[in-house]
Design brief:
Shape of chain A: globular
Radius of gyration of chain A: 14 Å
Number of helices of chain A: 5
Number of strands of chain A: 3
Oligomer: homodimer
Chain lengths: 104, 104
Amino acid sequence: MAKDDVDRLARMFKALSNPNRLRLFMNLLEESKLDLAKGRVHDCFLAKLLGGLELGAPTVSHHVKELADAGLIQTQREGKQLICSVDPDGLAELRSALTLHALT
Amino acid sequence: MAKDDVDRLARMFKALSNPNRLRLFMNLLEESKLDLAKGRVHDCFLAKLLGGLELGAPTVSHHVKELADAGLIQTQREGKQLICSVDPDGLAELRSALTLHALT
DNA sequence: CTTACAGTTCGACAGTTATGAAACTATCAC
DNA sequence: GTGATAGTTTCATAACTGTCGAACTGTAAG
């Protein structure tokens, strides 16, 4: 495995290594599951992502940026709000790194 | 998703968030793939895991402990040497967390 | 234009992490 | 026993991280 690939992967894992950030991502993933089951891509406001999380706005902004920079989520402005969705490519990369190809 | 589960998952991701530690784990995983293909469980010395990694012994010892504490690898003494292998349960946990059940 | 809203940027601070040097423990070979 | 080998523990240190308050930017509504 090339050094660049390892670094890229490590960055993704780092983005998921903070419980609050992981919760954000899992919430988004949960929503995505529901929506994908219905055949459309999910979008979601930041505020909505925070369900139960008691974090200040600057902190959330920072976490979202980390997840986006790592390639795990995609963001998009829509008026005042920031729309987030899981990046399917990033997710696929993660999963394939953890897959025992010899077994499947 | 319960708080404890999130914390446990986050700990696993954190263990993989350092490039050197991730390389250690990926080396082990690579070896495991080969061995599982042959129908046996792989074991591997620390020194062997280090292929190319220029880290001091204390650092490696520390990284191995982190991976073990996170539940990603299992260790076992054998004479002077420490035998490591991927913990299949931990790996399965990680993979299932990243799986879009609605899609599979 | 003014106000309110959603999110960002900029410090700052406490806490954590990665790394190695030195000293240590445990095991094997002689 | 002596010495060599494999790994651990302790400690120090530089670098990084998570969080927030305060000030800021951009957008929409009136």
